[in-house]
Write the structure tokens for this entry.
Amino acid sequence: MKIIMIDLLPPGAILILGGLLVPLLPSRVKPWSGVVFPVLGFMHLLALEKGFVQTIMVFGYELTPVRVDGLSLVFGYVFFIAAILGGIYGLGVKEDLQLVAALTYVGSAIGGVFAGDLITLFIYWELTAVTSVFLVWAGRTKRAQKAGMRYLVIQVGSGVILLAGVIFHFVDTGSLAFDKLIGADGLLGSASIGVLLIFVAFGMKCAFPLLHNWLQDAYPESTATGTVYLSIFTTKMAVYALARGFPGTGALIIIGAIMTAFPIFFAVIENDLRRVLTFSLNNQLGFMVVGIGIGTEMAINGAAAYAFANIIFEGLLFMAMGAVLLRTGTCLGSELGGLYKSMPWTAGLCIIGAASISAFPFLSGFVTKPLILDETAAGHHVVVYLMLLFASAGVFHHSGIKIPYFAFFAHDSGKRVKEAPWFMMVAMVLMAFGCILIGVYPEVLYRVLPYPMEYHAYTTTHVITQYQLLLFSALAFVFLQKTGLYPPELRSTNLDFDWTYRRALPAVVRGTVWVGREVIEAVAVPLRAILSGAYKLVYRLTGPEGVFARTWTTGAIAFWAVVGLWGFLLLYYLAR
Amino acid sequence: MSDHHDTDRTYWLDDKKNVDKICYALYGICAAFALADLFNYKHHLHFSFEYWKGFSSIYGFVSCVALVLAATQLRKVLMRDEDYYD
């Protein structure tokens, strides 16, 4: 009986309910809730069978709160693994707010991944927005507060657009099912308005170019633990949603390629190392988006595999930078350096994450990224392929080298701090272990991918060419450092697309208000004169002494009435 | 927070000569991998340019130098004070 009851719960519900219970727990066990509830949730997921679908009728509409299939499972697994490791990393968090926000946020993202219909998806989509914003606000600075507000507006906006799209789509097709939404031709041009709106909503959460800026704006303002959680769930839920609804959409190949390339320019000149990682995250999402755009079974596998691997290695990098933030109070490259002396373990683990994201052989990036690259080449997308290669070299440059170099090496900042606390260390060690495990035994991951496949990452060609690409990127770094061409880390803000709504738009509004006021002032003087003249005229006519205010005799009224009626009769006669 | 034991210690990397050693090691490894292209080991690639000798090495190096030089120019346009938005 109990098992049946548990089966009725959607995956993720245990985390959401658990999160709501946190404030009631005794303070000694509270931090462990971030580990225990994800473990329980994961066990619940493992008990669900592949192919399990739960449907309910609501107001005569059939909804599918749970659909367990290959695509949802791979994202579900990695979300739970990340949630458990995030929980371990956050064992030092004493604040109810962060624990509640983290658990409900993760639960919502997992719920979204298993949503089988668009209404359920919409509900979880909005839930992730309103729960995660508390993680941004948990930074408890004025910047965090403001960035959180901007984040919330954009995230909720994405949900509203999604809902509008769902309604249009339902009116068009009568279907609420969340399956492939794009037509067989893969063209956005021939998609309905509803499908286009859904595409834009997904694109906002996936940080498409020009829709991306909430990511770099809000994520680095959160706490050490908060940013780790944030970096994992929202964007990968969006990747999942795109893989479900828009596989083979040609536009995604272009969008993804741009995403891989343009954020890395910003990453090179950004000083806040956690913000560098958000640019890197944006670039990584681009690879997944390209895979989805290509849309073959192998490419979808590649996108899912890369999302899986990325959550682990990018999570590890965010964890390492979080530990640095916790111990030194800053993540600014200009203030750091030489930390390997006091945080050698964190430095070593960070380097494993950095090497994984750069796709060094025997680490997770190496066995997952080529799935996407190979399919891009097989589809003869030569320009996109070259862009992805450029971005791969760039990733190594800004994430692989820049992050560990400026935090742990470079010039010694003189900071001597304690090594990261044990729980952070445990989480980072497990993450690093994941990177190596997947790198050495890729079948572990390949087996849970949506489509069965046979792939050998370790060919001589692939290993050697990859080493060449990476080692010569490292050589470029050394060359640029030695010649002084490498831009120094500077305390600064770099303008990005958010300038349009943080500066340009407010300026336009202020300008419009100013112009409006000037125009009113200019018009007001003559207008007031005219109005007062008109008022005087009316007063003269209808006032106490006015013509219209006189009392008329009954005879005069009768006379004018007769004149009026005669006039009407005459006009009527003439008009015939 | 600060620990005398730590500050007094000199580390292997503190010596500039050792940093140079790492750089020389990198040059050596790079040369070895670049020379690998003298052998015909490449198979199952999709584009003909990928078979060119030294393609990956040159592409990696040029990409990164171009990336950094372009980003440096970008900084001239985009960089503002740290508290620009505050």
